[in-house]
Amino acid sequence: MIRKGSMKAYRAQRFAIDQFKGVRMDHATFIDCDFSATDLSGAEFRGCSFHDVQSGKSCNFNSALLKNTLFDRCDLTRCTFRSAVAPALAIVDCRAQEADFRNARFLPIESDGQLLFASRILRSNLSHANFSGVVLDGCHLQGNRWAGAISIGTSFRDALLNDGVFHPFDWSTADFSHADLRGSVLGDLNPREVMLLEVRLDEEQIASMLLRLGIVSPM
């Protein structure tokens, strides 16, 4: 791991393809920067900002390679990750409201058919982020805020979605088969309208579902 520096500021720059590959950046600021099609494999961004509140401008990661890339406590608000290739990407404790992940590929890293590293998005604010067309199968997605997130054609099969907040959220547009939703706030999830094939729920969630279906009466 190469530590390139901390507290640096970059504005409206187009970066070379491997400029940040394997590099650690601490508390750097990136305003309106273009990371598109760059190789960020093994890079770590800790406490960095990729969104400028005053101008509203964010950064472009479209089609970037994000293999084993870490964003820890970063501001990714309104950043675009369209068609990024992200095996074992980690986004942890970040702000990513209105981020655009359409058609990004969150691929696991496997060896001899065994899963080694799954992509992770943990304890982050994903409100109104766009995950349309994204396959998040088997990803670790615990503790996130999903209010208003767009999930048209999204697959959450076998994903760990514990302790999230899904309110408001349109459950009808995504596949949650075999997902683990225990501990999450499920908002207005209507089991009559959503296929919950072998979804894992806790006792409180199950009781709420039964009440919504009219199978049990409120106390």
UniProtKB/TrEMBL annotation:
Pfam families: Pentapeptide (PF00805). InterPro entries: 5peptide_repeat, Pentapeptide-BTB/POZ_domain. It comes from the Bacteria. This is Pentapeptide repeat-containing protein. It comes from Stenotrophomonas maltophilia.
